Amino acid sequence: MTNPSGIGQSVRRREDFRFITGNGQYTDDINRSGQTYAVFVRSPHAHATIKSLDIADARKAPGVRAVLTGKDLAADKIGGLICGWMIHSKDGSPMKAGGHPALAVDKVRYVGDHVAVVIADTLNQAKDAAELVNVDYDALKATVDVASTQKPGQPQIHPEAPNNTVYQWHLGDKAATDAAFAKAAHVTKIELVNNRLIPNAMEPRAAIGEYDRGSGSYTTHTTSQNPHVARLVMSAFIGIAPENKLRVIAPDVGGGFGSKIFIYAEEVVCTWAAKKVGRPVKWTADRTEAFLSDAHGRDHITTAEAAIDATGKVQAIRVKTIANLGAYLSTFSSSVPTYLYAPLLSGQYDIPAIYCEVDGVYTNTAPVDAYRGAGRPEATFVVERLMEVSARQLKKDPAEFRMHNFIKTFPHQTPVIMAYDIGDYPASMKKALEMADYANFSKRRDASAKQGKLRGIGFSAYIEACGIAPSKAVGSLGAGVGLWESAEVRVNPVGTVEVLTGSHSHGQGHETTFAQLVSHKLGIPIEQVSIVHGDTDKVQMGMGTYGSRSGAVGMSAIFVALDKVIKKATTVAAACMEVPVDQVDFEDGSFSARGTNKKMAFGEVALQAYVAHKFDSSVIEPGLKEGAFYDPKNFTFPSGVHIAEVEIEPDTGLTKVVRWTAVDDFGTLMNPMIVEGQVHGGIAQGIGQAMLEGAVYNDAGQLVTASFMDYCMPRADDLPSFDVGMTTTVCPSNPLGIKGCGEAGAIAAPPALINAITDALGHENIAMPATPQAVWRAAQAMPRKQAAE
Amino acid sequence: MSKVSMTVNGQSVSEDVEPRMLLVQFLREQLLLTGTHVGCDTSQCGACVVHVNGRAIKSCTALAIACEGATVTTIEGIGSESNLHPMQEAFREHHALQCGYCTPGMIMASIDIVNRKGHKLDEQTIREELEGNICRCTGYHNIVKAVGAGAAAMAKTPA
Prior knowledge:
The complex is a heterodimer.
Chain A: H1 16-20, E1 36-42, E2 48-54, H2 56-60, E3 64-69, H3 70-75, E4 107-108, E5 114-120, H4 123-130, E6 134-139, E7 165-172, H5 174-182, E8 186-194, E9 206-212, E10 217-222, H6 227-237, E11 246-249, H7 265-277, E12 281-284, H8 287-293, E13 300-308, E14 314-324, E15 353-361, H9 376-393, H10 398-405, E16 412-413, E17 419-420, H11 425-435, H12 441-450, E18 454-463, H13 471-476, E19 485-491, E20 497-501, H14 510-522, E21 529-532, H15 550-577, E22 584-587, E23 590-593, E24 599-601, H16 602-611, E25 625-630, E26 639-648, E27 655-665, H17 672-692, E28 723-726, H18 744-761, H19 772-780, H20 784-788
Parallel strand pairs in A: 1-12, 10-11, 14-15, 20-21, 27-28
Antiparallel strand pairs in A: 1-5, 2-4, 2-6, 3-5, 7-15, 8-13, 9-10, 9-12, 13-14, 16-17, 18-26, 19-20, 19-25, 22-23, 23-24, 26-27
Chain B: E1 2-8, E2 11-17, H1 23-30, E3 49-52, E4 55-58, E5 71-73, H2 86-93, H3 103-117, H4 123-129, H5 141-156
Helix pairs in contact in B: 2-5, 3-5
């Protein structure tokens, strides 16, 4: 019997009703009785010492309840913000991290850095009073450029980090790699910039802190992807209150893309200040604040080389990257350009030797941390640009060159940590070539040329490591936390089910997909299932949603808990039917005793479990509720091939994406409609990176792209519709066979598009974002004859 | 403070407001109609689109007092629990939303597109007309499908 709400069905989303009717409840929609409003005074300078900070006038302004500074935080022994992943340099020394106070003390280090907070009865009063905070800055020279920040003579941002260098890390076998280069038949060398991005979830960050004097406990509503981690950090490291006196609620959250993983100054200050002012304290970022103070993404410069033998096999890859970490280390920033990056440099390819060096550096810019894909898009950009350029230099077909180098047997141990469990890379390539009608591309190119346009095609065969992550493994690499997930399944006496999950949904549709799993396993209608998430008072400790982990890890936890529920219910059913437990089967929502006509529906068994009249409660505990903490045994390795096709007007630089083919292998699909939606959104962000988006700081450290007027977000008419297809190899590393899908598009898209644009241009000299102006310049650099062809 | 009166979702309202209060603040903070969202401060993102006298506007660009006597419709004012507006239904059917934050503005803008451009909308028209609404989640693929389907459905159902 096919369950219409079961695994693999495109069930329409259960959360949608509240969103399409305006009944969503995002943090800023919440108003608490007596709430006050916080406005942060932010540094206008990229780098300055604070000579004096005069709050007297602001304090006296109408409606103002408090003006608080870093000294007040220190007086209350509130600790600084933390970075939760320890990276060691190649010489064995621990990373050199400077302090990160929630409100600056003595010095500011980027434009937007938090200097003071003004709390008043109305938002306008707080804004007006913030203008009266008189900060006397002694401006210092800023260091903004990632390529030069380590050079002698540059301003020093933190005394702990000489030459603004946080770490000089490496991974892989240098000797084996160098040896492979020494005997290579061909070496491809490229220089890459992975442009800095600003995540721009449509809901700006927000927080409401509250303090209850009666119980001495705090409540924080905040825009978080992982409220339990926020509570853990605010409690154990920042020291606002012990965990049992601090409740963190992440209600509806309007997109995250990584930027809402981190624990920021604002929620810390609002929570702490709530006790000081004796009122709830609310803060909502405006968009400019979001641009200035959300953690940014990417921002690498890289030199990459491939050593290729006479048969066209890549024998080694050598990479040197400088990664901008901004002015302070954000929560997981240190791990992004290291362990989330270099282990992906093998791509889909059987490469015997890889060596990667990464310098993590400070600059006077906003902190940089995980943004959709987090390290893996940067790695894929390196690998897939190297493969494409190599194929061109060797005059080989880019698809055939890739297939020649594909890993073809599994499991496969790469030289950079990862053990790929399963995949079928030729299958997704072949399917993508068919869907993209690659065979007839040259005809389309000729047709474009007749109209004076340049047509190009570009490939990206990506791999992603998600299902983050086996706790012991990441612990050995420096992670400060385990990365399991928790689930609790509460069956109510009438057979309805509540699942409490440590995952958090901010667009992913967990209220639908997680309920599909329950409906599938328990054989009950999806209407009887509720998914609860995002509240530390309701849900036991969990690790949250990022790194495409909620399917592979979060749902696996639910799977294990459901198995325990079925096991317990089977013992109850056996007792009620008066048969031995090993003769009871569970299928399609009912328990039956083998060889008899005895049968009990799941709901009846649930009722009996709570009534507890028909079994010996010294043998079987009453009730029906089970939990699980699921720790994955490996990462998962989604993969696929994206093919971009572009048409360029050489006279204007206008580049149209005329065709996009995506073939992905995500393992088991819980809900194909939702999975395809994730792919669409990821591709859009990837196209945004490749063609539209780029954060720009000027030499003085001013963010000149600090609004939607200046930072080009992808809009509907910038994008095509996407042809999305799937191939499937079932993941052997978790009980559901799921690999994860959230980041694939953002990982695959940038190299596919740049490979297409460079194919059209006939040369490699263009950087992201390939704006019309950049493409026009690049088109002018082409030999005239070729442009006219 | 100034007195302002208008009709919002069929109800007459009359409130004292600061002259600098924006329509979106009036709706969200004074009337607690929080379905209308704020996603930027430069009138770029369209999360705050509502209808004023039958036309879509960005409610972050209008002062509340400038809407004296106006008829305002927000996301809460279209459809009903048992009878969703065809555009709302189309967004759900075609998975045209993920985090839901841009959705109210998208739906209100989309209804306005149909009002102006008719019920047969091709993909290019929809994409160009959605220029003023930013979505970060969906890549617009399913929004474009939903607007086309919603437009066709609106021909059958009186709005």
